[in-house]
Amino acid sequence: MHKKKLIKEQNPKERIQNFNEVSYGLSEEQAIAEASRCLNCKKPLCVQGCPAEIDIPAFVMAIKEKAYKRAADIIKKTNNLPAVCGRVCPQEDQCEKACILMKKGKPIAIGYLERFVADWEMENSKQSSVDSNQIKKAGTKVAVIGAGPAGLSCAADLANSGYKVTIFESLHAAGGVLTYGIPEFRLPKKIVNHEVKNIAALGVDIKLNYVIGRTKTMDDLRAEGFEAFFIGTGAGLPHFLGIEGEGLNGVYSANEFLTRINLMKAYKFPEYDTPVNVGEKVAVIGAGNVAMDSARCALRMGAKKVYIVYRRSENEMPARAEEIEHAKEEGIIFHLLTNPTKILGDENSCVEKMTCLKNKLGEPDDSGRRRPVAIPGSEFDIDVDTVICAIGNGANPLLLSTIKELKLGKWGNIEADENGKTNVKDIFAGGDIVTGSATVIAAIGAGKKAARVMDEYLKGKKC
Ligand code: FAD
Ligand code: SF4
Question: Among 40, 74, 92, 97, which residue has the most ligand 2 atoms within 8 Å of its CB, making it the best to mutate?
Fold first, then answer.
C-alpha cells in the first residue's frame, strides 16, 4: 500500500479553511499491522539510514507486541523529540529509503510508527510537572544557546549526564523552527510544548527572551561560572533574490511571514494582536519545505490563488514529497522552470505584478542538480499582490559578531568538526548554524554528538 494511503487525513477542501493538523496518525490496529510486516532484520539497513541511529527494529517489534511504553523508551534513548520527528522527518530519504522492503516498493512506514508511539506515550504517561527551577543540580554549569532541536537535544543529554544546564533562547517560546516556522497544521504546538516540558523536567533551566550577544555576552556567562557552551542558534537570516521591487509593500521573507502566523498567531487575529496582510494572489518563491509551508499558510489565511514559483523542475524540488503532494491537493499552482526577475508596484508602492523568465535545464551544477538556464525572450508577468521569498536562510550574525575568536566559514556559519568542536576549546556548535538549513533530525544528531564531546572536555578539565 502507498504509505500516504495508510494514514487518514483531513479533506483538502475543509483543511484549507483551518489550521488543524492535516494527518490523523495510525490507529492501533493499523500500527500493529504495519509493525507486523517488519522482518526484524539482523543487519537492519533502516538504522543505518537514521541520523539518530534509533533501534528501529526493536521499537517496531515492541509495537507488534503492544508494548508501547517499551517502544517509546527505545526511541527516546537516541531521540528526545519523537513526536516531532514522527511528523516532520524526511523518512522517505532516510530510514524508509534504506529499509530492505523498499526493494519491493513497500518500506515499513517507520515515521508513522514513531508518531504512533510518541502520541500514545503523550496520552498515556503523566507529563512530569516538575519545575526545572526546583531541581537543584550541583553539577558543572553549562550554557546552551538556542532552544531549537539542536540545543534541546544537547541540553537533554548533558542534563542526563549530571550537568547543570541552562538554555538561553532569544524568542519568547522554545522550539526554534518547530515553534516559529513549521505551521500548526503540520506540527501542532502542543506537541512541541510537551516535548520541551519533558526536557525541562530533566532539570534544564530554559531562559526565554534572552539574546546572547545582546542581553549577555559569552564572556558575561563565563564570568558567571559557565564552563562550556553549545551554540545552536540556527540559520534564521533570510536571503532575498536581489531583484528590483523587493522593497515594495507586500513582499515578505518566509521567515517573517511564518513567524507572524505561527509564533505570533496572526491566524487568530484579533484574538492575538499581530496581523499579517495576505492578498488574494500570492507568489511564493522557492520549492523547499519553507516554501510549501508559506504557500499553504497563505491559502489558509484567505488567499484565492497561491503560486509556487521555482526556477528548476519538479524533480529538483527540495521539499518533502508528502508536503508537495499536500500542496497540490490543496490547489497550490506550480510555476516550474520559472525565475522572477522584477517585482512591479502600483502608485502606492504595493506589489501588483511579478515579471518572470522561463528556464530550461542545463548541465548539473555543484549541488548535482541540473542548472536552470534562462530562455531569452520568454518574459511574462504574473498578477500578484503578495510575494513571499523562501529561497533559504543564512547564519544570524548577531551572536557570532561578538565572539571574535570563533572561526567562521565563508557563508558566516560556524566551522565545527563532525562532533561539534570549534576552534575555541570551550565552545561547541551544531545544527543549522554549522551546516546551513538542514533537517530536524540532523540538528538533533548534532546536539547529541556535541553533548558527548562536551562531557569528555569537562571531565578532562577536572583531571
Ligand atoms: P533552529 O530550529 O533555528 O533553532 C535555533 C534557535 O536559536 C531559535 O529558537 C532562535 O530563536 C535561537 N537563537 C538564535 N540566535 C540566538 C541568540 N543570539 N541568543 C539566544 N537564542 C538565539 N526539517 C525537517 O526535518 N522537516 C521539515 O518538515 C522541515 N520543515 C521546515 C519548515 C520551515 C518553515 C523551516 C524554516 C525549516 C524546516 N525544516 C524542516 C528545517 C529544520 O526545522 C531545521 O533544520 C532545524 O530546526 C534546525 O535546528 P537548530 O536547532 O539548528 O535551529
Ligand atoms: Fe524492519 Fe525494514 Fe528495518 Fe528490516 S530494514 S528491520 S524490514 S524496518
Answer: 40
* Ligand 1 close to Cβ of residue 117 (< 6 A): no
Same domain, 42 and 8: yes
Ligand 2 within 6 A of CB of 32:
no
Reported pTM: 0.93
Residue nearest atom 40 of ligand 1, based on CA coordinates: 439
Q: Which three cell numbers stand for residue 446?
A: 548534532
pLDDT digits (tens, 9 = 90+) for 300-337: 999 999 999 999 999 999 999 889 999 999 999 999 99
Spatial neighbors of 376 by CB under 8 A, at least 6 apart, are none
256-305 pLDDT, tens digit each? 999 999 999 888 888 888 889 999 999 999 999 999 999 999 999 999 99
Q: How many folded domains does the chain comprise?
A: 3
Which pLDDT score is estimated for 134? 46
Residue ending a domain, among 72, 107, 124, is: 124
Same domain, 246 and 370: yes
* Domain end marker among 342, 358, 391: 391
- For residue 304, the enclosing domain spans 240-391
Please state, as a whole number, how many other Cβ atoms lie within 10 Å of the Cβ of residue 92.
Answer: 16
How far apart are the CA of 83 and the centre of ligand 2, in A?
20
Phi, psi dihedral angles at 181 (to 5 degrees): -110, -55
Q: Ligand 1 centre and the CA of 94: distance in Å?
A: 20
Cell of 263: 509564533
- Looking at the CA of residue 102, tell me the nearest atom of ligand 2: 2
Q: Across residues 10-36, what is the average pLDDT?
A: 96
Residues 386, 253, single domain; the answer is: yes
